[in-house]
TrEMBL record:
The keyword Metal-binding applies. It holds the Pfam family Fer4_20. One of its GO terms (molecular function) is 4 iron, 4 sulfur cluster binding. Gene3D superfamilies: Alpha-helical ferredoxin, FAD/NAD(P)-binding domain. PANTHER family: GLUTAMATE SYNTHASE [NADPH] SMALL CHAIN, GLUTAMATE SYNTHASE [NADPH] SMALL CHAIN-RELATED. This is Glutamate synthase (NADPH/NADH) small chain. InterPro entries: DPD_II (IPR028261), FAD/NAD-bd_sf (IPR036188), FAD/NAD-binding_dom (IPR023753), GltD-like (IPR006006), Helical_ferredxn (IPR009051). Residues 25-135 form the Dihydroprymidine dehydrogenase domain. It comes from Dongia mobilis. The lineage of its organism: Bacteria, Pseudomonadati, Pseudomonadota, Alphaproteobacteria, Rhodospirillales.
Amino acid sequence: MAEKLLKFVSLGRAMPDKRPAEERTRDFAEIYADFAARAAQGQASRCSQCGVPFCQVHCPLNNNIPDWLKLTAEGRLEEAYEISAATNTFPEICGRICPQDRLCEGNCVIEQSGHGTVTIGAIERHVTDNAFAQGWVKPVRPVRELPQSVGIIGAGPAGLAAGEALRRQGYQVTIYDRHDRVGGLLIYGIPNFKLEKQVVQRREQLLRDGGIKFELNFEVGRDASLDQLRQRHDAVLIATGVYKARDLGGPGSGAKGIVPALSYLTAANRHGLGDQVAEFESGELNARDKHVVVIGGGDTAMDCVRTAVRQGAKSVKCLYRRDRANMPGSQRETRNAEEEGVEFIWQSAPSAFLDDGAGRVRAVRAERIHLGLPDATGRQTPRVIEGSAFDLEADLVVKALGFEPEDLPQRLKAPALSVTKTNTIRVNWRSLSTTIPGVFAAGDIVRGASLVVWAIRDGRDAAAAIDTYLQENARKAAAE
């Protein structure tokens, strides 16, 4: 191990080459190149193989990171992929979009000691992309086929992860989604410069080849009720995610040109996929030649500002009520946005929206914020500074304030489905079962808006719970 690892004392941290800002802002291609094989080996060799691997502890999937780093350092990439894929359904996706600076890399022991973290995400991407190129990634091939079937509502990361795990056990899996493509936010919410769509579509094809069936343009509650789905399947998983945008009130908030983040990103992604998008073509959801103000400080806000730059906006500003240290989004994404010309207006919040007299927004009126004492969550409480108002020119305002659950009992026509006070689905946390027998729930619709990696974890946990439920039912039936 001394030969291949512990090189952090002599080898510095390095990321794959990143395209210059002036080049990458002209297109939507991913901004990072892949590691060369020797560079990936070198960076993996920096791992200290900690006795308590905090990278693994702080990964929602508890990925065996030190193990596959060791194998990568030794040039054993096929084995590295097998170890990675054992705990992560979509390592090629997580390697691209996980906020590693807040999770595994941010808790790397050598990072804490001042040597610079191991570049875990980039190595994960390298290992998996190489596995695809070498043909090592195969569709699921169950050892035996089981007669029970499972219906999954939602083809996002939680639903796909659950479907893959259940299919691996031999269950008959059908995934329903109201959209026309598989992937949920992976397709329509995350821009290509972070996750190119062929990466998602490649994984979709593997799932199809493994025997998972997809029913697209199928809306539960319109095309079939939840009860009707229960009659088709032995168990049902609700993995719809959360799509309802948190609204922003205040004077003038109804003006034209003030749009939700997901509508804006979906239009951009659909256009990139070759769809005809009327709102994009009309300019309603297109930043070209506009002064753009994005409100929010999370990863979705970073996706919006960086998309606006690529669409040819005249100016792009991000308005956030707290400071940089308190923003919820990835610091790496913030740095990328700054490199690409985005201006951040810290400690400022909108108080009103001014229109041009014809009902279209022309400016955002904002007020400066003082950060006071920490609240119950530990974050400093924002307080408006009296008399600090100022105006920002804006032809397009994007609200990136997070997402909330829809009214699922109404949408699914399932009044017996119990929800919490925040409208997430109420589950038994040990079994992920809902208040309706045989119906389970996982992902953001249970935990609230969160990360893709948590959705994958929840989907895998739900699959294990459904397997236990179906096997118990089968034993009971055999005993009768």
